Amino acid sequence: MSLHLRDYDYPLPQSLIAARPLPDRAASRMLVLHLGSRLIEHRLFADFPSFLLPGDLAVLNDTKVIPARAFSDDGRIEFLFLEPHAANRWLCMVKPGRKLPLAASTSVGGVRGVVQEILPTGERLIQFDAAVDLDRVGQLPIPPYLGRPADSSDSDRYQTVFARHPGAIAAPTAGLHFTPAILARIPHAFLTLHVGAGTFKPVQTEQITDHHMHRERFEIGPAAAQAIGAATRLIAIGTTTVRVLESCAAADGRILPQTGSTDIFIHPPYQFHAVHALLTNFHLPKSTLLMLVSAFAGRDFIMEAYAEAIREQYRFFSYGDCMLILP
Questions:
Q1: How far apart are CA 86 and CA 49, in angstroms?
Q2: Which alpha helices (H) appear in 35-185, and where do they start and end?
Q3: Sign of the dihedral through C-alpha 115, 120, 291, 78
């Protein structure tokens, strides 16, 4: 069992980080891991439907990324609007934080805001005088490792084709590979988890069990719960979907309709109760997402698969290729 942060590190050539998506969403490569036989296959994402069995259900996260990155009107402070709290009150990450102490005021898009509270983790609770028009003044918060600002192409490609419910600050990237045509070929259901800072917060403790996740809001509707209950096997599309399903699963695996939030941190030696298979992208070294897939497939097998992906020049991270992990 690996509980040390250093056990989740790996060397990645900078050239393998995908700065842009492929022209065709479904053209990504797909590394397929078979847990029972420990076989690794090289396939294309377009082959994904062929791996589904009768009774399978793909469960996808239909959150929509909001243009959450904005700047103060004087350009001195960068904001990441994380989550609304009551009328015109937002939980925000700000940098540099020293320029926005408690009770300080600033303006974003012509709207004045005052810092009402500074959380122990550094986020600010800011009360604005009116609604901030993020659609007008905000930008999509694409990951900083892409090494470029967001542009007009990201407005389409950094959203899934099934994104419906605004609220995320990052895309559920395993879903970016799907096209309407592929989705129409497979049994599927949607839940919603608004991806927040917790998913990407760096692990800064050597013992990973000392790390704490932020809470993220989710919803499972009645239709989705019914479809999940009728399925023989659940294929989670992305780690965000895994976190919701595992947070909501009863001891016998049943999942009921519900709305709530989760701070679940899945790492070895976690025992899964709901998810049987997983489609996921390749994750950053030392990240909680890498720890989650290591809990699902075993750290040694995941590290073997990542080394294989690097040798075969797979594309990594949000706009990169994907991995299908099967029983």
A1: 42
A2: 134-137, 152-157, 180-184
A3: positive
Residues 233 and 291 in one domain: yes
Distance (Å, whole) CA 322 – CA 301: 16
Q: Cβ distance 249 to 298 under 8 Å?
A: no
The verdict on residue 291 lying in a domain is: yes
Q: What is the pTM of this model?
A: 0.94
Convert the pLDDT of each residue in 69-117 to its tens digit: 999 999 999 999 999 998 999 999 999 999 999 999 999 999 999 999 9
Based on the fold, state whether residues 177 and 273 are members of the same structural domain: yes
DSSP string, 279-301: EEE---TT-HHHHHHHHHH-HHH
**CA angle (24 as vertex; 21, 26 as ends), nearest 5:** 100
End-to-end CA distance of the chain: 20
228 occurs within a structural domain = yes
**185 and 296 together in one domain:** yes
